[in-house]
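Lecture 7 notes: from sequence to structure.
We start with the chain below.
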Amino acid sequence: MPDQTIIIDIVGYIALGLTAASMLMRSIVKLRRYMMIGCALYVVYAVFIKAYPVAFLNGFIVMTCIYFFIRQHLEKEYFKIIEVKHTNNYLCTFLEINRKEIKKTIPNFIHTIPARGIGFFILRNLNVASVLLGTETEPGTLMIDLDFAVPEYRDFKLGKYIFSDKKSFFLKNGYQKLCSIPQSLSFNRYLIKMGFREETWEGKKLFVKQLTL
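Predicted structure tokens for the same chain:
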């Protein structure tokens, strides 16, 4: 059985790793999540080595993170859809600025100008938080070419707003079915969480969401 001291040291190193990793996160949600877990482990580590001031400080950080998570969950935010054409200059600039980040989550994205489709930004508290571009592949079906949220706003609230609260936006534009090809693992998990189901069409995997009123 491992010596207790070794176990405690391992807990301390894990806490150190998680806390350091949190500093590398661009997403505030992920930063706080990693920080909270790391500091909680630091509390355990500090109590065992009897470093009570360290335990108290990290306990305070854990409580602060919990407070902000609760506040974020309860806080009412302002969202708004702003439609844009695929040739919009601001859209093209936005895509270029975020090109590398887009490639990480949606590596197959190529900006084209479809014959029919839609495009829109989503404002979150008046800040441009995400963009969605889609191409009409057949009447009533929209293929999502890009659904990208800037790292600071990746907490599923945008997805819930688009695909649940505002699904009427797609229906009003004549789309009853949304499709997306598989992308990165994180993006695929996001689609499943947003209610997309994995299907096979002509031998190819697709994520599909049927919209109903």
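Points to note: Helices lie at 4-22, 28-48, 52-74, 89-97, 99-105, 157-165, 167-172, 185-193. The chain has two domains: 4-74, 79-210.
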